[in-house]
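From the shared-data thread, chain only:
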Amino acid sequence: MLLCRTMIPRSPATPSPGLREAPAPDPGILDPGTLDPAPLLDTDGFLYVFGYGSLIWKPGFAFEATHPALLRGFHRRFCIWSHRYRGTPEVPGLVLGLDRGGSCRGIVFRVAASRAAEVLAYLEEREMSGDVYHRRLLPVRLLDSGAIRRAVTFVADRRAGAYCGPLPPDAAAAAIARGHGVMGPNRDYLLNTVSHLRELGLRDAGLDRIAALLEPSG
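Structure, as tokens:
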């Protein structure tokens, strides 16, 4: 996209060069305090939730059906330090986030409207308590029908202190091998995700590379 810059006289309201303006809020980010399901329901009356990591193999909520799905504009990556669930402050582990660019294949959960409020409350507690994700409503393509649905999706917040960005596979594998938190070994989180993706007929080359670098558990 071509940007054109026009020089305009500076007014007293213009911030001084030493001050940085706060970024404008992203209109695609859902207000974390709003759990009213009505605006989040799709045109067919269901709530859809996109799963790309542990939600695939441990959703923890009631749903009507699942569908293989494709999300464009984000990719799955170990880009978030875990200081509780899969690591500690002293020895952090890594968990998955959706980072900008590319695409991601996962599954979409179809949730009845009557259960949407309780599912949203559960996901708010599970995914948003660490302040590392944005909750967004994003278009996904259902791969079994071709339909486009709006799905609640948890995207990595690049401004979060726990966001680590892209790590080399060997560095990610080393952190995952060491990590152990209240939910168990970090390696189990990785290997469960890889295993369940394969059951769905999906391969993630980045996760496969990290898994291949893990030494066998003793």
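The chain has a mean pLDDT of 87.
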